[in-house]
Amino acid sequence: MPQGRPLTVPEDGLTTRVRRSAPLLAVHTGAGKGKSTAAFGMALRAWNAGMNVAVFQFVKSAKWKVGEESAFAELGRLNAEGGRGGPVEWHKMGAGWSWARKEGNEDDHAAAAADGWSEIARRLADERHDFYVLDEFTYPLKWGWIAVEDVVAVLRHRPGRQHVVITGRDAPQLLLDAADLVTEMTKVKHPMDDGRKGQRGIEW
Amino acid sequence: MPQGRPLTVPEDGLTTRVRRSAPLLAVHTGAGKGKSTAAFGMALRAWNAGMNVAVFQFVKSAKWKVGEESAFAELGRLNAEGGRGGPVEWHKMGAGWSWARKEGNEDDHAAAAADGWSEIARRLADERHDFYVLDEFTYPLKWGWIAVEDVVAVLRHRPGRQHVVITGRDAPQLLLDAADLVTEMTKVKHPMDDGRKGQRGIEW
Questions:
Q1: Which end of chain A is less crowded, N or C, counting CB atoms within 10 A of the terminal residue's CB?
Q2: Class of A28-188 per CATH?
Q3: Rounded CA gap, B113 and A104, in Å?
Q4: Which of A74, A183, A189 has its CB closest to that of B182?
Q5: How confident is the model over A115-133, as a mean pLDDT?
């Protein structure tokens, strides 16, 4: 549990108050479980603190729906109707991003991923949200669909106090260099190694 | 994203259906961030699947309250009032476990931890919940307040389909041996290294 006691105090001329509210760029990478789950857990915490939360899932199929999406829909409703927590938006690539209102096939995944990133960059410029989850965002970076240099430049210069959490295996070094917090989830043991299959409420 | 395609199919005579619904014992350990956060993220998923969720926090002070506790209180209310998701209980050691209704100081942390584990063992025997989070439970094990052998025996023989997630650094080897899923969270980079302090909505 964080006790809020830093190991060193930097000589950056900043007050504790300013340093405390510094926007965070976190990356969850590695081959183990828990990268996305921990990001959604952080989003839950952010929601509770009243932050405006937005999740962008860089997934192949919009049909795939994790339990967190439904749970966050409920939390978003609690905010809209009861003023509890913060507002929530949840966008998935798959068959077109939800804001784009495109229906049907989205065969060009590379173009869809690039569109998604452009929208996120616009929102960051506008300070639209307080807490962003870019779920499985390392894959379009890895496959060259989105330029890492561009992503890092946008993130480094984002205005205000916008927190960003990026998940996925094989995060590129440039992104790790830009991040404040990097956690590697390492697989020590996994039931699928023994031939078990995933189950609802556990794996999704 | 899990594709539900196991690498091998075991020759254990079980059907996929039985294997699929096997109760999971997961351990999140290591010095990195995200151990508890990922466990609460899993609990969110379990809640959404209608599971009965119980969190037991082995923390020093009951005054420490993470954002997830408030958020899960809302989710529990959504279940009680609207039938959404599953029921939620949240118990903290600190100044006495909530079910014990003891007020005031709880100076003997070792005794309190042992009481907590006894209650959890009783609940497992009664199949009271579907999804248990034993948060920071490795510490009382490490300090010898609770016998690892006893914990492993109870967990190995728990009846029904009860999922258990245990978090904390330095998980003992016996526990790792008994677990189905072990993830080690490794710290690659942490803002507190640079003298930053924790902030609400991010660290708690």
A1: N
A2: alpha beta
A3: 55
A4: A189
A5: 97
Tell whether B186 lies on the interface with A, counting CB pairs under 8 A: yes
pLDDT at B201: 76
CB contact under 8 A, A183 and B44: no
Domain ranges (residues) in chain B: 22-167
Would you call B10 an interface residue with chain A, using a CB distance cutoff of 8 Å? yes
Q: Could you give the percent of chain B with pLDDT greater than 90?
A: 63
Chain B neighbors of A40, CB-CB under 8 A: 41, 44
| Cβ <8 Å between B20 and A176 | no
CB atoms within 10 A of CB B126: 10
Q: What is the pLDDT of residues B76-116, one digit of tens each?
A: 999 999 899 999 999 998 767 877 756 545 568 899 999 99
3-state secondary structure A120-180: HHHHHHHCCCCEEEEECCHHHHHCCCCCHHHHHHHHHCCCCCCEEEEECCCCCHHHHHHCC
The CA-based angle B31-B198-B204, given to 5 degrees, is 80
Closest CA to A42 of A202, A167, A165: A165
Sheet holding A181-189, edge to edge: A88-92, A53-57, A131-135, A163-167, A25-29, A181-189, B181-189, B25-29, B163-167, B131-135, B53-57, B88-92
**CB A192 to CB B2 under 8 A?**
yes
- Chain B residues within 8 A of A8 when measuring between CB atoms: 193-195
Which residue's structure tokens are 């199929």?
A: A61
Cβ of A6 and B196 within 8 Å? yes
Instruction: Indicate the class that CATH gives domain B22-167.
Output: alpha beta
- The structure's pTM equals 0.81
ipTM of the complex, rounded to two decimals? 0.74
Q: What is the predicted pLDDT for the residue at A66?
A: 82
Strand (E) or helix (H) holding B139: helix B138-142
Chain-wide mean pLDDT for chain A?
Answer: 85
